[in-house]
## 1
Amino acid sequence: MKILLTRPGLSFSFIIAISLIFGCVFAKPKMYSSFPVTEKSYNGSKKDSTSYTGQMARHVLHNSLKKLAGKGNGKPNSALKAKMLSYYSGKDAGREIIDPTSKGDFKIKQTMVDQISKGKNLKGKTYKGIINGFPGQMTGPEVFEFMIDKASSSNKGFDPLTGYNYPQLISKFMMGAVFYSQAVDNYLDEKMGADNKPNNKPYKKGAHYTGKEHSWDEAFGYFGAPAHAMALSAKQAYGIAKKKDMKVADANGDGMIDLYTEMTYAHAYYAADSDKAGTKYMHTIVGAFIKGRQLITEANGAALTDQQRAQLMGYVKTIKSNWAQVIAEAAFKYAGSCYKDLEKLRTIVESNGDASKAFAAYGKHWGELKGFLMALETSGRDLGEAGVRMNRLVGFGPVLLGGGQVTGIDSNGNLQTGGNRSMGEYQVHMIKLQKLLGDTFSLKARKNDVTSNMAGLLETLGSSLAAEND
Amino acid sequence: MQLSIGEWLPAFFNPQKRIFWGYMLSSIFIAFLWLRLVKKTNLISCVKQIFDPQVWISRSAMADYKVMMINTVLMVILSPRLLAKATVAYLVFDSMHLLFDGRPFLSTILPQWMIALSFTMFLFLLDDFARYWLHRWLHKVPILWSFHKVHHSATVLNPFTVFRTHPIEGVLFSIRSALVQGFTTAVFFFFFGDKVTLLMVLGASVFTFTFNFLGSNLRHSPVSIQYWRNLERIVMSPAQHQIHHSNAKEHIDKNFGVALSVWDWMFGTLSLSKADEKLRFGLSEEQSYKLHTLEGLYITPLKQATEIFLRFVSRIPHFQFFKNT
């Protein structure tokens, strides 16, 4: 201590070192919120330019629609269909939030969709291109309307004749065809152009945010992460979607979960799921979103320079590649689940047991797999040969116990099944699909990897490189 | 590509390799015990025999070292283009699903230690069996013999003679290894899943370790250790492998086996060792060969193989024009 007092230079260094240490340890992780208003034409009283309520309303619409898709009683149900369509294509007021709702001490602030944002729907934002992975050569909205129709007349969303699990198909495909597609093929694509939604003009007349600020916010909203995601571990972010851990979810400490800023949805949830296995998708994506938003904010309402835009596009690249990986990781995981399900089914069938439960689980996992793969088609990035191979390996439906598979849709709109593919062959397809996804998207979490232990075993055998004689 | 000592030095520290320092030491120790206790050689003579400069720095030995270093670099370049064991494993694993229409799990039938032991033993046996046959073909098929001659051109045997191998032969060994390892791993993994493990000592298969620890390096050495006659029908003694290198007429095409001689016994190529038999190593005199030169070790085999190939092709009726050109 004495030495510090007698040598001012040293004590100054000491203070800086201590401040740095404390700064690192106690620094508050950045949140995606409270970005100041920089739009010069705005004269109102708002101080925060951050706004992505429409996106969060759509997350809630999606969650609710998924719940509704599992409500059928096995008979045509026009009331249910109409209700599902009101969540998909309607804009009507008075739609209640069916999911997420309060559970125990996990109290949710909003109960109506309009409390988050008014007049929103999902159809208007659905990818309009043809979906090759689904039978019928339909556009994105047509696929959803077809599935909604089938789901409403199914028994709890499951059709045992085709193996289709509609809540899963609808949900996983929607995350892609609406959220992912809108973010990576619209807001982070053309809206990042120099002349499209420029930063020196409001997003729309009278708005308190600039064109670039709001475009960026909308893309962030679609990812589905809570605003305080950087302060959360993968397990915590994942737990929030499962309505666990009220303490970490309630970032503002008001005793309630705000569905606008404090909930984990859609791909953010799947990023967290992968990250539990050691990847860093959620923090990489949210981190890039925050840095990009800071960059736009620092432009202070002026048009972005070429250099700023180039830097911003660097963040865009990170977001797009990691986001695609999140979806591919999920597809990889469910390909592994389907493989295991087929194993289980074989054992049950051989022992003449009741396979209905295992078959339903297989259909559920297949629906997730298929939905995620169809989602990958909606990014605006042509997957080329890899995309074609993925669709061929999976086909239009899970291979059924009798060897059939969905082959198409007839003129009456009914799904047709046919063919005779063995379950063993379909297992090989799942292995090949995992390899294809792993190679195409450079996957790291690789959950449910069918052959990982075989690869590890091969490694223990050592190299056969050297030219050694006997 | 950096050509450095670091490329081949790791073999001295890798217990999966025969020239691992531990195996070298154990071989010296076994040679010493054999010479002292069985052959009743005096101490000085023991040391002289083991560290005989003729063995370690002869022209033949120097050629061994050169080939070892050149091949290491060549194999690093070639390796990405060779058949990978993973490729074989995936192919076999996929095919097994079609063969059995699914994946019948047998992992509950056997305890884990038995699965591990079965895997390790099966791998060792199949590998040794495949080595026997490839080695036999290297001798019997003329075009292959033109490459394998490189190994047999050693006139003095020392542990590094194991590396005296033409790179084409190295490629064949690599394919054999990929097929055996890929096939075995895939079949066991298919039936037993995550329960399959390799029984290891110091990171090497317990059988590889045992074979090497018990003096595999003495196969290529002048120390002629024999086993009991009945044991030599099952396990290859150093003396038996030295017979394989002998250029005496009665020893030609004998003892192709590596760790086990049982294959030779089964397929009629076994020769048991005789006490104090004087052997001359190298190629028989009528086989012209530029011994120990890089040209002789690398180029001549390619020339000879080409000649054999052209002779073979010219015998096919449609390719008669070869004779006229």
## 2
Amino acid sequence: MGIIIGKNTSIIVQGITGTQGSFHTKLMLEYGTKIVAGVTPGKGGTKVHGIPVYDTVEEAQEKHSANASIIFVPAPFAADAALEALENGIRTMVIITEHIPIKDAINLMVNAKQLKATIIGPNTPGIITPEESKLGIMPAHIFKKGTIGMVSRSGTLTYEIAASLTRKGLGQSTCLGLGGDPITGLNFIDALKMFKEDPQTDAVVLIGEIGGNLEELAAEYILKEKYPKPVVTFIAGRSAPPGKRMGHAGAIVMGKAGTAESKIEAFKKAGVKVAEKPSDVAELLT
Amino acid sequence: MKLFEYEAKNILAKYGIPTPKGGLATSSAQAREVASQIKPPFVVKAQVLVAGRGKAGGILFADTIERVEKVANKLLNMQIKGITVKSVWVEEQIQIKRELYFGITTDRFHQSYVAIASSVGGMEIEEVAQQSPEKVIKFPINPQQGFRSFHARQIARKMGYAGAQLSEIGRIFETLYKIGMDYDAELIEMNPLVETVDGKFVAADARIIIDDNALFRHQEYKKRLLEGESELTPEEIEAIKNDLAYVKLDGNIGVIGNGAGLVMATLDTIQYYGGKPADFLDVGGGAPAEKIATALKIVLSDPKVKTLFINILGGITRCDEVAKGILEAKAKVGVTKPMVIRLVGTNEEEGKRILKDAGIHVLESMEEAAQKAVEISKQGGE
């Protein structure tokens, strides 16, 4: 089980012929992900790691009817690639690309919402249901099948915490990266709802960071809904000064908004355990 | 990318939003020249990209042209929050009846732009929202419709305007939205938007932040950021050119890592153990050796750095490349400061071997490495 993807999800890789696209296609295939086709305009008719490449998503869909896609297309064209996938029936997609302009992302999300599509990212490591399927770029060996659902706004920090859970014997149901941009397809509440319905998930690890108010809204949701599964959180950026963007386009404290203190306080009020350091997450789960 | 007040005001004026008559000056003589072409009394404003400029003494008033020259002289080369004032904006003072706020920013939860309006302008809108939330109007903009003139008029009505004033302020709101979209603004605001004693509206201050990810569509500003005057230090510019995310901080532990979240957590962990980070530097994913070497060079250019903490968790980033980069930097820039290295993940064994052969010790846990770095940073006093 796990959320969003599973063993039978069939996938198109958009931007499959690029360095990243090709490299991660290989790793995903090795993990057992069912990749059926790739798309790169101008490279139709070729193959990458045995996977047929098409010029358009339309043609790939005529021949393979995939149900998800993963996008490695460069930022100026990535939102268009996602719209192309939407228009051709894809309703689940992971956008790995970072640096997509906000205006383009907003336009994409409104179209996705209308079609009830699920967009993971942009600027995400993707999603992994350990030992079943991986739609992303995360190093697979640090994950292990289990009962902890993970949702995060960042990549390597998720790996850091996932690896420490795995070392302590705490496997994961699904690990989902929302993405480090200000506008992402899914938010923490969406993920919490999905983990609530997932029978494999017993507890949730929520990894937030400074910027925006999605963590505060998640805390409010947990409190109001009396969320039935334990949640442990870590918030990155306690030491970040205001007005400085910490790498992620979304990670910035402006005035009083988006501080780590505000998020930590909201979670504590909702009865959520807050880890002081990444390595403390595992202890708080047990 | 933050635009200077004068840049923002020039854009607003170009689109037909009334702004006070004025001009930019980089010398007191030039300030005098600008003042001689407009009507007294005047206001002279330091052009710096830091918040709280007014409180720091960066906005001064003058009744006469002579006085403008004097205050401009005082402001130019003054330090405001560590930033040197290189230019001033001289403009006519406006006769204020009421100060308003209007801005457009992004709403992450609703995945849309949101218009924010308030009848209390002139202070930080977040503060108004906290103290008197009933005075702040938040209007999420449907991305498919955009912000239409009737939306603008509805907001104007809520703010208590009617008739000709409603039409005029509505036109200004709608125009600001258009500018925001044209310039890929992640924030655009008029604060205050002044209602003058004779019932007109004037944007007395304006702020625009262009979405960094959309700078490729705004080359003239990108050029100014990288080659002209900007809030960035030479190191920060070097970082942008090399696709590194670098933010200078004021501690003494240089930090390099891969991934924004991990680097932020590294800074937090250093602080948790009582140390002070000197910077935030994210090399991103899959950084080759040269990029790692550039990162080291940038961080070490800060003389305050006493030790270097490199925290790598290799996914797409290969530990052997990182190791090679460290040695390359050592050979080229001559790293003499002690380094604490935590290296795990893809090609970890090879990376560790390369460093071990060069006599560099590598740690496995982030906490252990952070403690070690803090310990070194405190040797020989702060």
## 3
Amino acid sequence: MNETMKFGVVVFPGSNCDFDTFHVLQNVMRQETVFLWHKDSDLQNVDCVILPGGFSCGDYLRSGAFARFSPIMAEVQKFAAAGGLVLGICNGFQILLEAGLLPGAMLRNKNLKFICQHVYIKIDNNKTPFSQAGKKNQVLSIPIAHFDGNYYAPPEMLAELERKKQIVFRYCDENGQLTEEANVNGSLHHIAGVVNEQGNVLGMMPHPERASEKILGSADGQVIFQSIIDYLEKKTDSRKKKAGRITRPVVSPLPPHIGNL
Amino acid sequence: MKIRILVSLKPSVLDPQGQAVKNVLHTLGYKSVKDVRQGKFFEIELESLERQEAEKLVPEMANKVLANPIIEKFTWEIIEG
């Protein structure tokens, strides 16, 4: 393998999916991967930042409420503002919501229980850097493990998310139907994952790193990591090409569906 | 100076924990209970401040950390000093 992309997995005190995520990126997806300590202020030139699952800073007060003040988050904010790819998984999603990098908030699961089980989600928007390796409406089997995954956004915000196709994953049954039973945590509009308006920050409650090897029951989570790798590779290639054609104007490195920037 | 801050879910947000408490109260025979909303309570001791300063500081702390303004609202009062 020649060049790979470089991934950074942020480690907060209380993160517990950091090693799983690192393992999948390095040993399954074969990408260069580094850990980023939450007190650091250097993203080490990574191409993609991942906020892993766990119970960052004890999840005291609210899930993700304290982690968002960690020094590394200021860098993640800048990185995201410059178009860098940021993926938050489970607690990482909660941190992105608390940090205001993604719209909405999490409520306690509707059944008031910690839910740890395999669920089905379907890809509602496969035009994002995090889902482009999948097909529209493709059903993925990926586990969840959370107490606060009941996604909430006020009605106007929800309408906006729908209109701008920011809902990337929705809880469904194995046939892709949006049944009430399939929406185990009670999320509004069955939301399992949302992307920001610019398309470069995604949060999802299911754990793709726990479903990236067949031997563990499902390798569907690879769709998410492969999408990111494909997207980054394409971006790198087109940059190289552009560098060779100096007469052309510099084009934004952001994906084309971000027309409104 | 001592202040008290109450944080609770906005009326428009479903409160499953409050609902569970309501159900228990009904089971125990308290049929007059119509609704229960639950929340968080903070008692914060501040260095002695002018009232004006506290009026600036407390909402700032509440909006930034103690409450999530998307789902929660807060009220506060000075209880001492």
